[in-house]
Amino acid sequence: MSKKLEGNGRWESSRMMLPEHREQYLHRREPTGPGEQPKETVEPGRSTPEQLPTKEELELIRDFVLLPIMMTIVDKNCTEIGLSSYSMKGLYMKASEVLMARIHEELSTIRKEMKRRQIKVFEDERVDSAIHYHFICRGYRDTFAMMRDVVRAEMSVRIARYVAEMFKAKS
């Protein structure tokens, strides 16, 4: 399998880089000597170098994008169940409310952490197959896209985990 498609390869493959930008990027990342950290350059007019986002920060950004979508879907399903004639709709609605509270709690924690780390995320556009965003992380600007199929799969995994936690806590 191509290295571009391993891990978060969709993130990496969504970028386009000109050769001169690549050279500049690699030059910035080169260690200056044995055992030294990669050097960072400072743009004219900036007092501090831009640091690339860490893996943890990229995961925060992904979660910040996913959780509101999950909240919307769970709320919509809860409303649909409330209007239905299911015999156990009370149970489903209560479980949905607990699930939304858990998602809201996690989203609140993520927002605080993003504020602390100086990360801002903005939605660009929604194309049929992907949702595009751009972010600013301590002055570093970049864009990313999430494929709708990936969003659905990630939401299914997370909702299953939240439901398992609900029943585990009650046992």
Report on the architecture of this protein.
This protein is of the alpha+beta class. The chain has helices spanning 9-13, 19-29, 55-83, 89-116, 148-170; strands at 119-127, 130-137, 140-147. The N and C termini lie far apart (43 Å). Helix 3 runs antiparallel to helix 4 (89-116). It is elongated, with a radius of gyration of 21 Å.
Task: Summarize the topology.
Blueprint: H1 9-13, H2 19-29, H3 55-83, H4 89-116, E1 119-127, E2 130-137, E3 140-147, H5 148-170
Antiparallel strand pairs: 1-2, 2-3
Helix pairs in contact: 3-4, 4-5
In short:
The protein is built from 5 helices and 3 strands. It has 171 residues and is an alpha+beta fold.
Which H/E pattern describes the elements? HHHHEEEH
Count of distinct strands: 3
Stretches with pLDDT under 50, minimum 5 residues: 38-42
Report the C-alpha radius of gyration, rounded: 21 Å
- Residue fraction in strands: 5-15%
Estimate the global geometry from the Cα principal axes: elongated
Total number of helical segments?
Answer: 5
Largest sheet: 3 strands, antiparallel
* Straight-line distance between termini: 43 Å
Q: Which terms would index this structure?
A:
single chain; 171 residues; alpha+beta; three-stranded antiparallel beta sheet; 5 helices; 56% helix
